[in-house]
Each structure stands twice: as structure tokens, then as C-alpha cells.
């Protein structure tokens, strides 16, 4: 790992903490500072084969979607490779696209076109979010896990270890999606 790669990852951590902090974002069920989620996603990605750009993008995966940060800012701060990953990880639907189910179809189609590296990060995101939702909101978990079982169908090019963990968490195989 070069000094610049380490610096880019650390800069991504700081940038994400600042941007989510400015929005005063917290985790829905725990009230923890939001940055615990990108930290968990980065840690999960780090547990499988990865690049430094993937770790930076893991830290940044929600900043465009959840803060007032643009993809152009990500490109300027972190380069085109990291920005491309963040773009692939950012939901593209908007409320005017229809109900939740319609928006999830649009976002799933966007994710289907993502690179294997982006899909690996998306799997890490799914694993962390699903674990939290299952633990804290079993009723919503029924809806959320059904959506994520559909998402798994387009994430097969991501890391196989993470895909299997996500499939286990979402109970993918026993719900007839296999």
C-alpha cells in the first residue's frame, strides 16, 4: 500500500464523517452517528479481496445520496475511479418515479450495470443494513429482505463470500429465489 493510497482512504473516511455529520445524520434504530455504517461497510469490504479505491468508495457510498455532495465533488476530491464506484452505488430513483416498489426496480436496474467491485461494496452495504434492520425492526425487515433477495439476483458478480453472507442473511435460498 502506498502512502497516497492510505491517504486517499483516510481522506474518504474524514470526508464522509464530515458530510454525514453536517447533515446531523444518525443511524435510524440506534441513534449512533451515521458514520458507523460506512465504517462497517469499509470493514466488510476490507475482509475480502479489494482495492484502495473500493475502500474509499465504501466510506463514500452514501454521501451523494444522503448529503448535499455531488459526484463532481467526489471526482475532484478522490478521482474518477472512486467517483465511478460511488456513482454505481448511488440510487438513481426519485420520489416522482412512483411508489417504493417502482423505485426499487429502477435502482436495481442501475445496480445491475455496476462493476464487480461496486457490487462487492453493495453486498457489504446490504449485509450491514440487513443485520441492523433484522435486529431492530422485524416488521419492516419482511419488506426490506424481500427487496434485497431481488437485489441479490443482480449482485452475483460481486465477491462470492459476501454474496453468500448476504444470501444467508436475507434467507435467499429458502424463499424460492434460487
How are the elements arranged and paired?
Elements: H1 3-22, H2 36-46, H3 52-60, H4 63-66, H5 71-78, H6 80-89, H7 100-112, H8 116-136, H9 138-152, H10 160-170
What is this entry, summarized?
With 178 residues, the chain is mainly α.
Provide structural commentary.
- Helix content is 69%, strand content 0%.
- The protein is mainly α.
- It has a single domain (3-175), classed as Hypothetical protein af1432 (Orthogonal Bundle).
- α1 packs parallel to α3 (52-60) and α2 packs antiparallel against α3.
Spell out the CATH superfamily: Hypothetical protein af1432
Outline type: globular
Q: Which stretches are poorly predicted, pLDDT < 50 over at least 5 residues?
A: none
Order of helices and strands: HHHHHHHHHH
Strand percentage, roughly? under 5%
Q: How does the major sheet shape up? A: none
Rg from Cα: 16 Å
Q: What is the terminal-to-terminal distance?
A: 39 Å
Helix vs. strand class: mainly alpha
At CATH's second level, what is the architecture? Orthogonal Bundle
Amino acid at each position: 500500500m502506498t502512502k497516497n493510497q492510505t491517504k486517499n482512504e483516510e481522506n474518504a473516511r474524514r470526508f464522509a464523517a464530515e458530510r454525514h455529520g453536517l447533515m446531523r445524520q444518525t443511524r435510524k434504530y440506534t441513534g449512533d452517528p451515521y458514520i458507523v455504517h460506512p465504517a462497517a461497510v469499509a470493514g466488510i469490504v476490507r475482509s475480502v479481496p479489494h482495492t484502495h479505491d473500493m475502500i474509499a468508495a465504501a466510506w463514500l457510498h452514501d454521501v451523494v445520496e444522503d448529503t448535499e455532495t455531488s459526484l463532481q465533488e467526489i471526482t475532484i476530491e478522490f478521482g474518477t475511479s472512486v467517483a465511478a464506484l460511488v456513482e454505481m452505488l448511488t440510487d438513481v430513483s426519485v420520489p416522482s418515479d412512483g411508489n417504493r416498489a417502482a423505485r426499487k426496480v429502477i435502482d436495481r436496474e442501475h445496480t445491475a450495470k455496476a462493476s464487480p467491485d461496486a457490487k462487492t461494496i453493495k453486498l457489504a452495504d446490504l449485509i450491514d443494513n440487513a443485520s441492523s434492520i433484522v435486529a431492530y425492526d422485524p416488521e419492516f425487515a419482511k419488506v426490506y429482505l424481500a427487496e434485497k433477495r431481488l437485489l441479490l439476483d443482480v449482485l452475483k458478480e460481486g465477491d462470492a463470500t459476501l454474496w453468500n453472507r448476504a444470501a444467508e442473511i436475507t434467507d435467499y435460498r429458502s424463499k424460492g429465489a434460487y
